[in-house]
Design goal:
- By secondary structure, the chain is of the alpha/beta class.
- The protein has two domains: 136 residues, HAD superfamily/HAD-like (Rossmann fold, 3-Layer(aba) Sandwich), CATH 3.40.50; 67 residues, Orthogonal Bundle (DNA polymerase, domain 1), CATH 1.10.150.
- Helices cover 43% and strands 11% of the residues.
- It has nine helices and six strands.
- A six-stranded parallel beta sheet has the order 3-2-1-4-5-6, with helices on both faces.
- The longest helix is centred in the middle third of the chain and has 19 residues.
- Bound molecules: 1,6-di-O-phosphono-beta-D-glucopyranose (B16) and magnesium ion.
Length: 213
């Protein structure tokens, strides 16, 4: 087996919180009268909350102070957390659950590498609060993707070198981060066709075959 560990992005890979991110940013943008669409939202994938806010404010004719920006980010996060509160174990697909269990049965170390500060809350909601061997997230990094810090931290937490870990990502910023950290990357969703990825997943379950190789 080429890989001894797999590091998963959270939003867009393990579960779909991306729609909630979109709705919460859209509500803020509407209140501020700033045009905001799905294409803008795609550029927020994998990057930090404050960097995501900058994507929203790009089209604003008004410039805001740092205090105002922090208040906007808090407003968005409060609404986002409210929407996340609707999530439950039903939001973990059978495919993801079965695949994770199959990978664990093969002896692989499994970790999360997410830019989100809401990672523990989301994992609890979907019933994976104590499943992973390690969780590296937005609470323990100073640079978010495309910087490789979060994946390097996850690899260190599971005691493995990046050369034997596979990163699974749905964001171009995440694929870039994986490659910069010396990891192979399996890309899916929005990043599926990214040429920098080693693997292009047709489905999440493809990971079992990749891990066996
Ligand atoms: P939060 P991931 C990322 O999670 C999201 O893709 C990105 O859209 C979001 O801005 C970022 O988390 C920060 O999230 O506001 O919850 O701290 O894809 O790296 O799992
Ligand atoms: Mg993601």
């Amino acid at each position: 087996m080429k890989y001894a560990g797999i590091i998963f992005d959270l939003d867009g890979v393990i579960c779909s919180t991306d729609e909630y991110h979109y709705l919460a940013w859209k509500a803020l943008a509407d209140r501020l009268n700033i045009p905001f669409g799905r294409e803008d939202n795609n550029r927020q994938r994998g990057v930090s909350r404050m960097e995501s806010l900058e994507v929203v404010l790009e089209k604003s004719p008004v410039s805001y102070s740092q205090e105002e920006k922090i208040a906007f980010a808090t407003e968005k996060n409060d609404l986002y957390r409210q929407l996340l509160g609707e999530m439950g174990e039903k939001d973990l697909s059978a495919e993801v659950k079965d695949t994770l269990c199959a990978l664990r049965a093969m002896g692989l170390k499994l970790a999360i590498g997410s830019s989100s500060k809401n990672t523990p809350f989301i994992l609890d909601r979907i019933g994976l609060g104590s499943f992973f061997d390690a969780i590296a997230d937005g609470n323990c990094i100073t640079h978010s993707k495309p910087h490789p810090e979060v994946f390097l931290k996850a690899a260190e937490m599971i005691g493995l070198d990046p050369s034997v870990c596979l990163v699974v990502e749905d964001a171009k910023a995440g694929v870039e981060a994986a490659v910069a950290g010396g990891f192979d990357c399996a890309a899916m969703g929005d990043a599926k066709d990214d040429p920098r990825a080693t693997w292009h997943l047709g489905s999440f379950a493809d990971l079992v075959g990749i891990a066996r190789a």
